[in-house]
Every structure is written in C-alpha cells, then in structure tokens.
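Async update (no meeting this week)

Hi team, since we skipped the sync, here's where things stand on the single-chain job. The sequence we agreed to prioritize is pasted below, unchanged from the tracker. I ran it this morning and attached the output directly underneath so nobody has to dig for it. Comments welcome in thread, and please keep replies under the output.
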Amino acid sequence: MLAGLAGQAAAGPAEEARRLYADFVVAQNANDLARVRGLLLDSPGFLWVTNGLSVWGPDAAVARLARFHANEVWRIEPDEDRARTVEVAADAAFLHVPLTLTVGSGGAAVALPHPHHRALRRHAGGLAHRRAVHD
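Output:
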C-alpha cells in the first residue's frame, strides 16, 4: 500500500504502479526507512506478506524491514526488462517485478533472486493502495 498519488491523477494505474514502486526501491536502497514508511498507506489494514508471514500495519512492516536493513549490505535490483504491469480496472493495476535482493555482511552478502508482486488501487483523494503479495 502506498500513498503519494496527489498530482499524478493524469497517469494511468500501470504508470502509477511503476512510479510508486521505483520510489519504494530508491528509498529502500538508500536505507531510508522513514521515506519507506511515508510511502505506505497509514492504515491498520495495510498488509505486507513476506516469506509466508502476514505483517499487519505499516509500522510493523517497517519494523520487519529494519531488521533486514541492519545488515551491512542491503540492495534491491529490479529486473525492469522482465517487469509486467496489468491494469485490472480503471483505478487498479497488478505489478510483477522480478528482482535480485542482495543482503548480508561485506564479502558474505548473498544475492537472492526474488519474485516481487504488488497490487495498486487509486483511492479517493489521490491515494494509492499497494499490497505486497509476496516478497
């Protein structure tokens, strides 16, 4: 779930999904969890699903991310050439972005290929809703 569509109303849901995801990756790679938190919908109904674990609420999601960001190396490399966006309604899109997640410490960092899926829905007032399906 992401916030931040104000001023982006002219873009379709596919373009918005890609833009929001790109902002999310930049914030993650900058280790800027405050910025990541600002992108997440501020709702207890926010759901982040990771490795089969359901994490409810944006603060709990950021707390989980913080544990990973404690590693010396944390980097997301989306495979934009293989990314696919499907508009499922006038205000919703599904985004699939294969990526490589590199995590660990120094020379022991491991690059892990990872599927990454997102659903995006435009809300009244220009907010977006993004839900992690798996990551």
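Quick observations from my side:
Residues 13-134 form a domain with the Nuclear Transport Factor 2; Chain: A, fold (CATH 3.10.450.50).
The longest helix spans residues 13-29.
Reply here if anything looks off.
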